[in-house]
Records
---
Amino acid sequence: MLAMRILISLQLLGLTLLCVGIFHCQASPRYTFVVEETPYRRLCSTKNILTVNGQFPGPTLYARSGDTIIVDVYNKGNRNITIHWHGVKQLRNPWSDGPDYITQCPIQPGGSFTQTIMFSSEEGTLWWHAHSEWDRATVLGAIVIYPNRGATYPFPKPHAEFPIILGEWWKEDMGQLYKKTIQNGGEPNMSSAFLINGQPGDLYPCSKPDTFKLMVDYGKTYLLRLINSAVQEIMFFSIANHKVTVVGSDASYTKPFSSDYVTISPGQTIDLLFTADQSPNHYYIAAKAYVGGAGIVYDNTTTTAILQYNGNYTSTSIPSLPNLPSHNDTKASVHFTGSLRSLADQNHPVDVPRKITTPLFYTLSVNTLPCLNNSCAGPNGTRLSASVNNISFVDPSIDILQAYYYHVNGVFRTRFPNFPPLLFNFTAQDLPLYLQTPKQGTEVKILKYNATVEIVFQGTNLVAGDDHPMHLHGFSFYVVGWGLGNFDKDKDPLTYNLVDPPLLNTIAVPVNGWTTVRFKANNPGVWFMHCHLDRHMSWGMDVTFIVENGKGLGAQILPPPPGMPPC
């Protein structure tokens, strides 16, 4: 009776008990997420958007390294939803990872699901977002993971910290945009505006009064937790007249380096220090799209916020804009990303796999599928598609994790190839049309527990070469190499950085180029890997990994929680 009273009291305080064995229990923070339609006004018009708790962007989650938190998700919206905790490895706990039809079926309107978010080595900035259709445009928020109590940042403590979330806004309903794009087989309509912390900024109509303002004191240093939540675009970001110092990315610390601008992929987070060391005034913070592919339609507008110094001074009437790189400046994009290095000190060591047991070579392609009477909106009446190793992923009818765990036959096959079926000049300007048509299927790749995996991602110029920000659930990986053009298996590995490569969960494979990543498959479960340009993911640029159980309870998938959403 006493134990029951204690449990009820803790639940009323918004806590839950997690127990290891019988005697070791700790209270974990508990959040409530209510997904609901909320009216928001942007660009002179109002529309209903899906939000969490009526907020856009949604609430920030706070944790410390190694914590576990509980989130009760209630779907009071008008369509299916799932929530993904982007970059949280969720050791042995794929049940709460979130991608629809991969680790769970969606939470239906009126339904609910309690998700357990288990942090391990992550430290810095991550984020959460919807992982169903394109609802992450408005269902999203930051995750801040502080060092353990008694530990400190590996850089001087900032005066204050601010999340800066880049996003996109469409005047049309996101559900209708998704359905129309899938039905007609063409490119989605480009966004109506980019956003900084939910606001378009001064350069858009009906937007100036609500422009986000970042208030600073002269001489103080600040930490910006930069998140790119844009649905379709890699972004350039800069602060006029102020340099930033990169100190982390994807909840992993980096060697500090100074830059005038940042390149950040959808899904990626970057931690930045800057010092308010300029003449007190108003300065623009700005972001715009980077698009490396030729002929790709994109939103060419610029979103702004205002960096405003506190105090009494005479400000200029118009803030100065930063000098952002040109929209197609691939050199600037890869220069920034290629400058990332792991901190690799005594307190933050690296563990780069050296002996590779599972080498994989994955081509990333935009493709086309034939349409009856050439009636689709893709090139020459075809339907746009995308693939990895010429396989365009097809969602199953029930989630792959459930099918794997309960041995349900017929849901997926395990024949995903280690290498592409055909070798050709992947980045040539003129490629034969027959190469454009992929195979379709629900194929998965099986990885042995503790396998050391190397993936060479090779972009191709089929249909339209493009950058591909690849995100892996359940792991962080070391980015050991990259280059433009075709990967050379004899020469390029000689240039790998095995000393201090960045540890990331999302990396942009450059347009018509390659990137090599390495990781150890020490997290049993079903884990999704996909391009974080949502149009490419929806077209099938996805791979599902099944990491087999190891020996012993500590190397096996946890049992499913109660209340999994029905299929």
Note: Residues 11 and 63 are 18 Å apart (CA to CA).
---
Amino acid sequence: MAADAVAAAMAASSLCDDLEPATVRTCIRDVLAAGAARAGERVVVGGWVRTGREQGKGTFAFLELSDGSCVSTLQVIVDAAVHPLARLTATGTSVLVEGEIKEPPEGTKQNVELKVSRVLEVGEVDAAAYPLPKGKVKLTLEKLRDVVHLRSRTNTIGAVARIRHQLAYATHRFFEENRFLYVHTPIITTSDCEGAGEMFQVTTLFSQAEKTEKELKENPAPSESEIESAKVIVKEKGDAVAQLKAAKASKQDISAAVDILNRAKEHVSKLEERSKLKPGIPCRDDGSIAFENDFFKRQAFLTVSGQLQVETYACALSSVYTFGPTFRAENSHTSRHLAEFWMVEPEIAFANLQDDMNCAEKYVQYLCKWLLDHCREDMEFMVKNYDKSAIERLELVSSTPFVRISYTKAVELLKNVTGKKFDNKVEWGIDLASEHERYLTEDIFKKPVIVYNYPKGIKAFYMRLNDDDKTVAAMDVLVPKVGELVGGSQREERLDVLKQRILDAGLPLEPYEWYLDLRRFGSVKHSGFGLGFERMILFATGMENIRDVIPFPRYPGRADL
């Protein structure tokens, strides 16, 4: 079988003789990790020049090359005889080179370098126009948002990208190891999970209106007289068919006359349809927008959460999760808000609030431990440049049991704080502000905290009402640096209670009938939570602005690319 497989592969490869041979490229991370152990080996590497300088009166050049596989760069040495040096040294130039790994002279900071024997490819740069500066000169993170298509070439955004990748990979690993199924929930929805109303609308009514207005200008709607004239023709053609039948004409003649009649009827139908075309957005008699004319025949939105949909799978497959983009049309310009962000949302059948808290704690600790084990170089970069306590924070959270206290107890502790004045007054019934959350985890307990049993008035309709009729079985995981990292709850599984909670929230029942069906047909106790993925990256890296931990940030006034 093995020989057959090799023969098949060789036969397949022979079909591609007209293509360039594949490039077997070694990533810079692997070269640097092996160090002197790979000295003397010939490799092909590719990357972008961070800094380049000619030396020896133009006889050779040093290039600091990065391919994004790690923070560190590889020093590449190119002789003028190999390639014109002026075409290689500009910051931002891309090169693919072949050469020999060598040990550098003693006293240099590099552990290996590459002596180039062939330059295979070059992507040149107009140095005067290239927006990223050379060497140690840095643009602010705010300025980098103006060149979002190039900012991933910087050390900071590259490190954040690798950390983000590892957190995403660890997320799937954690849920796979705990027997969860990954479910893709819809981005377009007709349900408002949060009940806040701050949703982006999905509609084709505007494009339809523009198309109709253009069409009416080019071909105005028919007048009533035009339609009546067309109807007269239909009557004439109908009479002609009747006369042919009465005269017992041939089938061929009758069939031809019927075809003419049908075309006349179709023309009338099209005229009548066109006469209904009106410029502008279609509205009902009461002035409200006629969404029945929209693409989905009803109002539709970009999702704020996949939770409600993923519950349908939890109520059949037991343990599931969704991980995808969510959207909020909140006109906020703070460093903690985005219009598009990613959420990790597991849902567990046969689980109460205690089970929910246990899962959230295990998951957050798993992520922290994963970064410590698999992203050490990037985390050390963040410690050196942004947050000296970033690694210590990961170590604390990954190894320390989370404190668990009720909302009522949390409010009591905060009200008794002396020597600290909060900007937001603390009283039972408020939604704890970030300053309260951080004080609990950073100052009072100095470790992660889970607050549970929140007032029902500040939480969503789907959270299970407690026996006191004042609180719901909700929980938030609070961590240093960011405050709330996870929000979750036991879901309301009682049909009558859930119906009333929807109505109390001022929401119509009709869009949630499918959600109520989960309670009508085999209702089950279940729980879940949501982790804001960008918040997790903020917590891990110590970065200050959420716009710098997502590849293409969307916020009021900006949706570049």
Note: The chain has a mean pLDDT of 92.
